[in-house]
Amino acid sequence: MRAAVCSPVYDQVFKGVLVRGGQLARGAVGVNGGRIVAVADDLPGDRVHDFGNALLLPGAIDPHVHFRDPGHPEKEDFETGTRSAAFGGVTCVLDMPNTKPATITREAFNAKRASVSAKAYVDFGLFAGLTSDPASLELLDEATALKIYMGSSTGDLLVENLALVQQALDRGAATGKTVCVHAEDEACMRARKGLVAHRTDFLAHEESRPNTCEAEAIRKVLALRRAPGARLHICHLSTREGLELLQGSGATCEVAPHHLYFTKRDLLKGGNFKMNPPLRSDEDTRALWAGLADGRVDCLASDHAPHTPGEKLLGVWECPSGVPGVETMVPLLIHAAKEGQVPWGRLVEAMGGRAGDIFGLPKGRIAPGYDADFAVYDLSRVTRVEAANLHSRCGWTSFTGLPAVFPTHVYLRGDPVIAEGRLVGARGAGRYLPGGARRAPDATA
Questions:
Q1: 178-195: per-residue pLDDT in tens?
Q2: How does DSSP classify residue 177?
Q3: Which helix (H) or strand (E) holds 223?
Q4: Nearest-10 Cα torsion for 198, 203, 208, 212
């Protein structure tokens, strides 16, 4: 007589409509100890969370945020920033180094990590910033990734020394860490700004940082890669030319929703549409949407960059660049996928899986071995983005009135952070993720 074979019973089982093989289908996810251990049509569990016909998607990774912590708590800090992220279905954020002080020394890095760890509602990584001092590269051992500003932006981390950029790429290859580049060529922008500096209209901002400056920076940095395995990532790609240059290069790239939803005509509305790189043409926007849909654009990134409403009312050259977006990034794209603009399988990869690969994070996929991070979306609950309903401290948004689907529930490693649209997670529950070598993705469910 054959002994009965008992099916395993999981600590928790999450049920809903999953993206499986690029298609929407009911499924179940088994979780033990905060990690996914099984995905199937149905599974038994001690605690079963059944979300019916709602979408059960992986928690998103936002690999590009500026939470202004330390330095500018009036704009944002890690508590309000990660809370806003959670309400947008984001369970992991990677914070940029241009804080005050900048994350360019071990002392500053350790102080920032200790401070923000006590505030984070979701998991996080921290970038080190490259400076003219090569000693800043030593932070790659501890930082999640390295950021290089080839063009000036908020802060003073500009690096024009190409030999140092090459050294950074070599060090990234040696440590298994990803080197990320703000790809706007400073010399190009310096020349162009001289031609428009007398103007007061906001279109002058776009003309001072044209497509050619992004393309020139990408050409330069691609030519510098010499070490096998150098991991180069282009931040906030904004142009058709840049996208074409990256094809077949082995580098990865991200796109921000503001470069998908707006064009340079929106700059006529004022400072709430000023960012670096600037808004582009209809042709560029169409190219980025196409690249996102077919996979040439690897991942989404909000480039969440809050400033106070008063600052954004200043003139074109005084107004700081940047817009908030960590809470609206995924909800906007969920609606886009619902309307057929982006295939569901591609969206799930772009909102998490690819960023997990690029930065070496166990996040962004519903597959065995990954963290049990989930966000639940009811596609019948389409709302319009309104600043009053968002949770960033800055209190405004450029995406007002656009349709979006916000999550009803969000889980971090199996623990609830958002339940029925309410914050239930614990401040300080987020963990620091050091990143590392690119993961070989498991078979996705």
A1: 999 999 999 999 999 999
A2: -
A3: helix 211-224
A4: -150
- Rounded Cα distance, 337 and 149, in Å: 32
Q: Which residues are catalytic?
A: 303
User: Is the per-residue pLDDT at 152 higher than 90?
Assistant: no
Question: What value does the mean pLDDT take over residues 18-24?
Answer: 94
The secondary structure element, H or E, covering residue 409 is strand 409-412
Q: State CA 83 to chain mean position distance.
A: 15
Distance from C-alpha of 181 to C-alpha of 178, rounded to nearest angstrom: 10
Catalogue all structural domains in the chain, each as residue range(s) with its CATH number. Answer: 10-56+371-423 (2.30.40.10), 59-359 (3.20.20.140)
Q: Which two tokens stand for residue 6?
A: 């008992």
pLDDT, tens only, 360-416: 999 999 999 999 999 999 999 999 999 999 999 999 999 999 999 999 999 999 999
CA dihedral over 111, 77, 298, 410, signed as positive or negative: positive
Tokens of 406: 């916000």
The CA–CA distances, whole Å, from 32 to 75, 157, 242, 368 equal 38, 43, 43, 10
In 70-167, DSSP assigns E strands to: 90-95, 123-129, 145-149
Please state, in angstroms and rounded to a whole number, the distance separating the CA atoms of residues 154 and 258. 18
Q: What is the pLDDT of residue 443?
A: 32
∠ CA(176), CA(294), CA(225), 5° rounding?
Answer: 30
pLDDT (0 to 100) of residue 4:
42
Is residue 238 within 8 Å of residue 259, measured between CB atoms?
yes
| Mean local confidence (pLDDT), 195-205 | 96
